[in-house]
Write a structure and sequence with these properties.
The chain is of the alpha/beta class. It has 14 helices and 16 strands. α3 packs antiparallel against α10.
Length: 451
C-alpha cells in the first residue's frame, strides 16, 4: 500500500511539473499556437512531418542565422536540432546562398544533364572512395530504398538483415517496432551491437540474404554508436557468406571527413548519403562497388532503370558542391566533431556529478540523452530501462524538452541533438549549464521514476 501511495505521489508530482511547463510554453508562444490550430484544418494533426511534431504544439520558425533559429513569436534559440543532422552548415551560409542565387539565375530545373552533377559526384567520391560509382536521388529514405532494391536485384536474393531500433527512412522504420507503412521486404531482425548473434543470423540466412544494412551509429534510437569491432565484424561475416554490406551514413557521414566508415577503416559494398550533401537542399545519394553500380549504366543491355525528375536538380547539385569544396573543409569537420566530443564529455560529467540514472551517448557532433541506470548500447537496453514506466519516461522527456526551450536551447523531444559548424563553445557550455540546472531541480523526480 505504501509503495502504491508513493507511486501515485510521484506521478502527480511529474504530471504537475509537466502541466506547469506546458502552460508556460503556451503562454509564451501564442503565434505558434495559432499557426498550429490553423494547420490542423489542412493537414492531419496540423502536420506533414511527424518528426517535428510534439505536444502541446510545435514551434513554428520564421528564420535562422548562423547557429540560431527564431520562432514566430520572436524567441531565439541555440539550435541543437540542426535539421536532425542535415544542418551541418548552420543557417544561411553566405557561400552556399551565393551559389544558389547564381545557379537560380540560369534556371530552376533544366530537364537534362548539367556539369553541376559531375562536380558534386566527384567531390563526394573523394570523401567516400568506397563509392566507386554513384547516383543521386532525393532523400536519405530514397537512397536506402534504392540501395536495398539494388542489393536484391544484384544478388537475386530477397531478404535484408536489419537491426532492432534502426531507422533507415520513413518507410524503413524500426525505432519503436516496425511501422505499418514499411516496405514489405523479407526482413530479418537481430540486436544492434551483438556481433555473435548478427554473425549467426547472417550465416543461417545466407541462402536468402541479399544485404545487411546498418548505421555505424544508430540515430533514431538516440545516437547509439556501434561497439568497437562491430562494423568490422559485420564486414567479415558478410564476406564469408557472400552477402552485401550496406552502410547507411545518411547521418553519420558528418562525424568524419570520410564518414564513420573512414574512421573505422571499413569499406562497404554500398553506401547511402543524404542530409547535408546538397548544401542544405533536398538530396540523397547511393553508390558503391563498380560491378554493382554499373548495372545502372543505361548504355548497357538490361540496365536497371532509375528515374527521378529532381535527382540532378541544379540547385542541390550546385549548393552541395559549394558547401563541400568551399565551406566544409577537413579542418572544419574535425573542429565541429571535436566540440561535439567536448559536449558529450561535459554532459556525462554533469550526469555523473548528480549520480542520477541518466546516460549520455553519441560520437563527435551527434549526441543522445537517455533516462537509464545502466549503459545504453542498444535500443533493448533503453526498453529494459523504461519497462513498466514508459508513460513517466515520456513525461520526463517532455519536461526536459520544454525546459530547454524555456532556456533558449532547441533540442529534439526524443532528447537527442547535434552541432553545426556554427555552434559555439559558449552555446555548448550554456546547454551543459541548463542540463545541470534541470538535474538539480528535477533530480528527485528522475530518481523516483527510474527507481
Amino acid at each position: 500500500m505504501q509503495a502504491s501511495k508513493a507511486a501515485g505521489k510521484r506521478n502527480m508530482d511529474l504530471a504537475a511539473a509537466v502541466g506547469e511547463a506546458e502552460q508556460r510554453y503556451a503562454a509564451q508562444n501564442p503565434k505558434s499556437l495559432a499557426l498550429a490550430k490553423s494547420a490542423a484544418a489542412h493537414m492531419p494533426g496540423g502536420n506533414t512531418r511527424t518528426t517535428v511534431h510534439y505536444s502541446p504544439f510545435p514551434l513554428y520558425f520564421s528564420s535562422g542565422a548562423n547557429s540560431r533559429v527564431t520562432d514566430s513569436d520572436g524567441h531565439s534559440y541555440a539550435d541543437f536540432v540542426n535539421e536532425f543532422t542535415a544542418g551541418v552548415f548552420g543557417h544561411s551560409n553566405a557561400v552556399i546562398a551565393d551559389s544558389i542565387r547564381e545557379t537560380l539565375a540560369g534556371g530552376i530545373n533544366l530537364g537534362g544533364c548539367t556539369a553541376h552533377e559531375i562536380a558534386l559526384s566527384e567531390e563526394v567520391r573523394k570523401r567516400f572512395p568506397a563509392m566507386e560509382l554513384m547516383r543521386f536521388c532525393n532523400s536519405g529514405t530514397e537512397a536506402n530504398l534504392l540501395a536495398l532494391a539494388t542489393a536484391r536485384a544484384f544478388t537475386g536474393k530477397p531478404a535484408v538483415l536489419v537491426f532492432d531500433g534502426a531507422y533507415h527512412g520513413s518507410i524503413i522504420y524500426f525505432v519503436s517496432g516496425a511501422s505499418p507503412l514499411n516496405m514489405t521486404f523479407d526482413w530479418i531482425f537481430t540486436p544492434f551491437n551483438d556481433l555473435e548473434r548478427a554473425a549467426a543470423a547472417i550465416a543461417e540466412n545466407a541462402h536468402k540474404l541479399a544485404a545487411v544494412i546498418v548505421e555505424p551509429m544508430q540515430g533514431g534510437a538516440g545516437a547509439i554508436p556501434a561497439a568497437p569491432g562491430f562494423i568490422a565484424g559485420l564486414r567479415a561475416a558478410c564476406d564469408e557468406n557472400k552477402v552485401l554490406l550496406v552502410l547507411d551514413e545518411v547521418m553519420t557521414s558528418r562525424v568524419g571527413y570520410g564518414g564513420l566508415q573512414g574512421k573505422l577503416g571499413v569499406s562497404p559494398d554500398l553506401t547511402t548519403l543524404g542530409k547535408y550533401v546538397g548544401g542544405g537542399l533536398t538530396i540523397g545519394a547511393f553508390g558503391g562497388r563498380a560491378d554493382i553500380m554499373e548495372k545502372f549504366d543505361p548504355s548497357r543491355p538490361g540496365a536497371y532503370p532509375h528515374g527521378g525528375t529532381f535527382n540532378n536538380n541544379v540547385l542541390a547539385m550546385a549548393a552541395g558542391h559549394a558547401g563541400l569544396t568551399k565551406v566544409l573543409s577537413r579542418q572544419r569537420v574535425e573542429a565541429m566533431n571535436d566540440l561535439g566530443d567536448v559536449l558529450i564529455g561535459k554532459l556525462s560529467a554533469v550526469a555523473g556529478k548528480h549520480r542520477l540514472p541518466v546516460q549520455i551517448t553519441g560520437q563527435g557532433s551527434i549526441f543522445g540523452i537517455h533516462f537509464s541506470a545502466g549503459p545504453v548500447h542498444s535500443v533493448a537496453d533503453q526498453l529494459r530501462a523504461e519497462k513498466g514506466r514508459e508513460a513517466s519516461v515520456a513525461d520526463l522527456k517532455k519536461l526536459f524538452h520544454l525546459e530547454m526551450l524555456a532556456n533558449s536551447f532547441y533540442v529534439a523531444r526524443r532528447i537527442s541533438g547535434n552541432l553545426s559548424i556554427e555552434t559555439t563553445a559558449a552555446e555548448v557550455d550554456g546547454l551543459c549549464e541548463a542540463f545541470d540546472t534541470f538535474l538539480s531541480v528535477h533530480g528527485g523526480l528522475i530518481r523516483d521514476v527510474m527507481a
